[in-house]
Amino acid sequence: VNTGGKPDISREKSAELYEKAKNYFPGGVNSPVRAFKSVYGTPLFIQKGDGCYVWDADGNQFIDFCASWGPLILGHNNAKVREKVTEVMQNGMSFGAPTALENELAELIIKNNKFVEKIRFTSSGTEAVMSAIRLARGYTGRDKIIKFEGCYHGHSDSLLVKAGSGLVTFGETSSAGVPKSFAQETIVIPLNDTEALTKAFEQFKDEVAAVIIEGIPANNGLLMQDPEYIQFLQNICKEHKALLIFDEVITGFRLGFEGAAGHYGVKPDIVTYGKIIGGGLPVGMYGASAEIMSHISPDGGVYQAGTLSGNPVAMAAGIAQLTELLRSGFYKDLNNKASEFAESIQRFATARNYKLKVFYVGSIFWLAFTDKGKIQTAEDIDPASMEKFKIMHRELLNRGIYLGPSGYEVGFISAAHTKIELEKAKRAIFDSLDVVFR
Ligand code: PLP
Asked: Which residues form a coiled coil (predicted)?
C-alpha cells in the first residue's frame, strides 16, 4: 500500500529472518506484538543497540522510542550496566543460592523507596503481579479481585480478563485457555469511575481481596487518572479491608525512583515492579510492608519461588542501572527533555489543526489521533484512529524513527536521547504527520 510518503526502507534481511522464524515460533515471534500485525511490513529484526539507536538486520539505523518496552531508561548498551554485568558474569551465571548481589539491589530499592519494606525478586513482571495477587488473596483470605478495563498486568490467568457487558460484571476471559471459573474471580470495571467501584464493593462485600491498577495505565494508550480518583480508590479499599495493588512494572523507577505511588503520594499495600529494575535483563519484583510480606513462604503460607529468581547477572544490571537513576537531577533532566519533546509536537499539530494529542507523564509519551483533551478510559479511544497511527509508523520507520508497532503503545525517552536526536525525531514526526493528514 502506498501511503504517499517516503519510499520504504529495505527489509530484505528482516523479511528473510521472519520467514525462517515462522518455522519455529507461532507467528514467527516470542511475544505477539512483535509480529507487526497492526502496522505495515514485516517485523524488523534488531541486530544491535547503542545509546538511543538501534540497527536492524538490513543495516537501517533508528532512533528508538520503544526501549525494549521500557526497561532501557539509560538507553541501549549503557557502559556502566555492561561493565557491571561483564564483571559479575566472570564468576558464573546462576547458583540457585543466595548471593550478596540480591542484598545490594534490594538495599538500593528499599532505602530509596518508602513504599516497600520487604521485597521478593521474580524473573518477569507477569510473575511479580501473579504473585502479588496470590499474596493479597492469602493475606485477606478472600478470592475476588477488581481490575480495570484498559490495564494490562501480564499474562497470568486471573488477569487475562476483560470487561463483560454491564457496569459491574464478572470478567470474560480475554484469551482462550483461561477457565471461566478463574475469570469469575476477577471483576472488571472502567477506569476513572467512582460509581462503578462503589457498586463493585457493594455487590461483592467482604469478598474482594484486592484492587489492582497500573500506577498510571500505560498499556492501552496513556490513561492518566485524576489524583482525586486514586485517593478515592485508596479510601474505598481501606474501608472494605481490601488491598490496593499498584502495578508499577512500567511506571516504577520511570516517573521517579518512587514511581506512580510517589507521583500521587498514595501508599499502595503491595507494589509490583519489573522492566527498569532489571536493566534490560529478566527481572520482576513485588514488595509491601514487612507485615504483609511475612505471609510469603518460607515465613508464611503463600508459596512462591523461582529457579532464576534473583539471578546474579540480572541483579548486576539492576544495581548498575538504579545507581545511575539515583544521581541528583537524573529524573529532572530526563523529564524536562521529555516534556519539551512532547509539547513541541503538540504545538506543531495544533498549529496545523491536526487531530493529534500528545499525552505524556515523566518520560512516557503517547501520540493519540484524537481531539479529546483527556483520555482516561479504554472506551475513550477510537479504534478507527489506529489507521492513522499505522501510516505514521511506516513514515517514521522510513525516516529512521522506531516506535513500538501499535498505536495503543506508549513511547519512552531515555537518558541517551540527546537534544540532537530529539530534534531529529521531532522533524521526522512533523514530516510524517504531514503525510498522515495530507
Ligand atoms: N504489568 C505491566 C503494567 C506491564 O506493562 C507488563 C508488561 O508490559 C507486565 C505487567 C508484564 O511484565 P512482563 O512482560 O515482564 O511479564
From this structure: none
